Amino acid sequence: MRNWQKTENTAFDLIVIGGGSNGAGVARDAALRGLKTLLIDKDDFGSGTTGWSSRLIHGGLRYLEYFEFNLVRESLREREVLLRVAPHLVQPLQMSIPVYASGSRNFWEIQAGMLLYDVLSFDKSLPNHRILPLQKCLQLFRHLNPVGLEGVAQYFDAQVVHAERLCLELVLSAQDAGASALNYVKVSQLHLQGDRVTAITCDDLLSGTTHTLQLSPQTVVINTAGPWVDQVLQGVQSDNRKQSRKIGGTKGSHIIVDPFPGAPDAALYVEAAVDNRPFFILPWANQYLIGTTDIRYSGDLDRVKAEDTEIDYLLSETNRVIPCAQLSRKDIRFTYAGVRPLPYSEEKKTSSITRSHVLYDHTQEGISNLISLIGGKLTTYRQVAEEMVDAVLKKQGRASVPCITKQELFPGAIALNNTLIETMVGKYQALVSREAIFHLFSIYGGYAVKVLALVDQNPELAEPIVPSLLDIKAQVVYAVQAEQAYTLVDICVRRTILAMQTNYGFDVLLAVTAILKQYCDWSDTDCDHQIQDYHRYIEDNSLPDFVMAQVAS
Ligand SMILES: Cc1cc2nc3c(=O)[nH]c(=O)nc-3n(C[C@H](O)[C@H](O)[C@H](O)COP(=O)(O)OP(=O)(O)OC[C@H]3O[C@@H](n4cnc5c(N)ncnc54)[C@H](O)[C@@H]3O)c2cc1C
Q: Residues 62-92: pLDDT tens digits?
């Protein structure tokens, strides 16, 4: 149960609305700098755009075409920081760009871009780019369409396979530093008196109760609601202050397929023939993540789904570059789509809208203690957080406190090394296989020690969730007891990688609910409702329309 009384009686320095990577990053930075912080999300942490991204921690080679050198430099610097402070979550990823004579970007342009990318990441730990001559490409990439192929350019970026856990670790770290963090709490109203937000009304979606938090004269409110930023601002209860539109989101979709004939060992970055847009074919959790698209979006932000046309576009462009793939709709395991929280711009071509972020201080609209984040990539969340907390300290007239997140390891990275893993293998070898222990460390980093500790109290929790998986029952219990997981979606999609491994979770729902009943006091009714909600979630977000049409018929 949540302690609302305590929350209502606390004088927070900072209230952060939106627990995606940016909001969670702000909460962590603020708490580490000693600010009394509250983080609120209407859904689960990382359930918004953060979880619908391509999961790349990248400089954004493409942005060089739009002369966004500052953004690329900033992103490349942040890539390096994340490789250092969260090595268990963020790993180097080699990208290969096949260059075709028919493409809109010729070899020299690509090579110039690569050189610039290297210059802008002069302080990186990853290798520089290299250009493979045609002969070598034909040997190494035997399945690439050879017609018109001129060569392949290779460079490094990074990938966060489980962006949701990165976000969760930011939340856990913020809590360790003293912040409060509530998921499933929706902010519905911001009450104004004079030029200040003086109270916030929010709905606890778990208990069905409504609460109004009175703000202290110091409190600053941060709106990091991603594509929902304007919806949060619509809740401002003002006389007749007019809010201008801040976000003009564009939708991007991905398809997920199993390894297919000709699938590349490493990531490909390919230009689509239809519209010359680059898209990714990425190895991801033993599957392939292919995306994305870029389409203006003004629909329901809570139900964003890949359209059949987007799916067909990604399938046919993949088949064009890897002809033996022969992918078709029946190969799709699932899809997902999200809305980029980009600055509102009516005319621009979607791909040319800046991916840089803006901290929008609402003082210019007559509200002195509210700042909204417009834009902001997953890659640059830390920089956003640093700037945001600096702005808050300045607003509050406090002395500046140094930001430490460039050096401070993620909690899952602390003390994580082979000796620790081998010690755990030795300690639990009678109950958990070596392979399963390595699997746990690959998901949780150092938190795997805490997951395994549950086995000390109850050895049955060492059993696999289902025989075909390395995942153990303790993970489900840990998600509920230690990671604020309240739903089956939280458990299967965002705390563990069960969904990625098991037909989007459908194959393990009964096994997971059995564990929840036995060890977490979930009732039969709770489990039945949760299973229905899980199906609805997948239908709303991840099963293509053509699959739904087949199911319906
Ligand atoms: C298709 C696609 C691919 C992308 N790929 C990449 C990539 O590879 N690399 C990269 O760096 N970036 C990528 N991005 C961009 C990146 O994902 C986002 O810019 C970033 O995740 C935004 O994070 P956020 O925290 O600002 O927003 P979100 O993650 O959307 O978080 C906002 C949160 O606010 C909450 N919220 C909303 N309204 C309320 C309310 N009233 N009360 C309380 N909470 C509320 C939501 O539930 C949500 O959790 C991609 C984006 C898309 C769409």
A: 888 888 899 999 999 999 999 999 999 999 9
**Distance of alpha carbon 332 from alpha carbon 348, whole angstroms:** 32
CA of 500 to the centre of ligand 1 (A): 20
Q: Whose CA is nearest to atom 15 of ligand 1?
A: 377
Strands 267-271 and 209-214, by their bridges, are unpaired
Structure tokens at 434: 């070596």
Q: Which domains does the chain have, with CATH numbers?
A: 4-49+164-245+355-395 (3.50.50.60), 60-159+248-352 (3.30.9.10), 415-552 (1.10.8.870)
Instruction: Specify the pLDDT at position 550.
Output: 66
Structure confidence by residue, pLDDT tens digits, 298-329:
999 999 999 999 999 999 999 999 999 999 99
The pick from 39, 50, 61 for probing ligand 1's pocket by mutation, whose C-beta has the most ligand atoms within 8 angstroms, reads 50
Q: Whose CA is nearest to atom 41 of ligand 1?
A: 187
Task: Retrieve residue 323's tokens.
Answer: 């002809």
Ligand 1 close to Cβ of residue 48 (< 6 A): yes
Q: Where would I find the H helices in 416-523?
A: 418-428, 434-444, 448-457, 473-482, 488-489, 498-501, 509-520
CA of 228 to the centre of ligand 1 (A): 9
For 246, other C-beta atoms within 10 Å of its C-beta total 20
| Helix-helix angle 21-32:163-176, to 10 degrees | 20
* Closest approach atom of ligand 1 to CA 337: 1
Q: What angle do CA 20, 71, 125 make, to 5 degrees?
A: 90
- The H or E element containing residue 49 is none
Does residue 512 contact residue 308 with C-beta atoms inside 8 Å? Answer: no
Nearest 5°: phi and psi at 219?
Answer: -60, 135
Say which residue the tokens 């045609």 belong to: 134
Q: What is the pLDDT of residues 239-251, one digit of tens each?
A: 666 778 999 889 9
Ligand 1 pocket residue status of 42, Cβ below 6 Å: yes
